[in-house]
Write a structure and sequence with these properties.
Layout: E1 2-19, E2 25-45, E3 49-53, E4 56-57, H1 65-77, E5 83-89, H2 100-116, H3 122-130, H4 136-141, E6 144-149, E7 153-156, E8 164-168, H5 176-184, H6 194-202, H7 206-210, E9 214-215, H8 227-237, E10 242-245, E11 252-256, H9 259-270, E12 276-279
Parallel strand pairs: 1-9, 3-5
Antiparallel strand pairs: 1-2, 2-5, 2-6, 3-4, 6-7, 8-11, 8-12, 10-11
Helix pairs in contact: 1-2
Length: about 290
């Protein structure tokens, strides 16, 4: 039996450069892993694949991302898959823009490599993950990265200076395909200064990073999701250096320089939005990179 944590992610900056011929979108993002995390445990069994979450094994039927990733892994290393029982202890909220599902799969893949193919490079593991989902390569690597292409072209960046995050998820979900469709039909006005953010990271300038937070999805949010902006305003009122929506939302995160201020802000926000979490930056997950 092996267990690993599965850290969530936030998008410090998210820009969409256009639609590609393959139907996907060309992305440019600065991504950061954070200490909010699930726990993934893998145990070899006699046969088959079982996924347990919330104390129940999911019924057979449509393959989960975890099963697809395991099958892709064993196909890549050229051996038949053993029976596996995978248990998820969930903390990161689902459908939140925090990459919780991708992080779980990435942790599973790291466990499989550790047990069955320790010679596999991180780049090879990222390629296996990318066959399952665009966020997988970053969730395998972690830390602070510039992500381009569909999210799979990663460049390591200097780590984010010490700080705290307050993550606040309103009680609704947002359809990612719907937001992409709205981006395609809009002239985006406020693009994040990613070059400036990478320069601020290089100089260890937390204020410079915070001042450049940005997510183009915020420009195309339907009116029904205006609560996202209410969360942003409250974070700023409670002392955040800046705040932005992560991914396709609806979670909003604020960056705080002082932990005490972040703790007070999280306590206050939790009275209105119970899914509020305190977190810190996590450095590179995979030491092989």
């Amino acid at each position: 039996m092996r267990t690993k944590t599965a850290p969530a992610k936030v998008n410090l900056a998210l820009d969409i450069l256009g639609k590609r011929p393959d139907g996907y979108h060309e992305m440019k993002m600065v991504m950061q892993t954070v200490s909010l995390c699930d726990t993934v445990t893998v145990e070899e069994t006699e046969a088959g694949f079982r996924l347990e979450t919330g104390g129940e094994f999911l019924p057979a039927g449509k393959k989960t991302l975890e099963q697809r990733a395991a099958e892709a892994f064993f196909a890549a290393i050229g051996r038949s898959a053993p029976g596996l029982a995978v248990t998820l202890e969930k903390v990161t909220p689902p459908y939140a823009g925090l990459g919780g599902g991708s992080a779980d799969v990435a942790a599973l893949l790291r466990i499989l490599r550790e047990v069955y193919a320790p010679e596999l490079t991180t780049e090879e593991l990222e390629r296996i993950g990318f066959a399952v989902g665009s966020d997988m390569p970053f969730c395998i690597r972690g830390g602070t990265c510039l992500a381009e292409g569909r999210g799979e072209v990663l460049t390591d960046l200097p780590p984010l200076p010490p700080c705290c995050f307050v993550l606040c998820k309103p009680d609704f979900g947002i359809s990612t395909p719907t937001l992409f469709a709205r981006v395609d039909g809009s002239a985006l006005k406020r693009r994040p200064d990613i070059a400036g953010m990478t320069a601020a990271l290089a100089s260890g300038d937390l204020a410079g990073v915070a001042s450049r937070l940005g997510n183009v999805f915020e420009d195309v949010l339907p009116e029904e999701f205006a609560e996202v902006f209410a969360v942003k305003r409250r974070l700023l009122e409670l002392g955040a250096m800046n705040a932005a929506m992560s991914g396709s939302g609806p979670t909003v995160f604020g960056i705080f320089q002082e932990r005490e201020t972040a703790v007070r802000a999280a306590q206050t926000l939790r009275n209105v939005w119970p899914q509020t979490y305190l977190a810190e930056p996590v450095k590179k997950i995979d030491p092989q990179v």
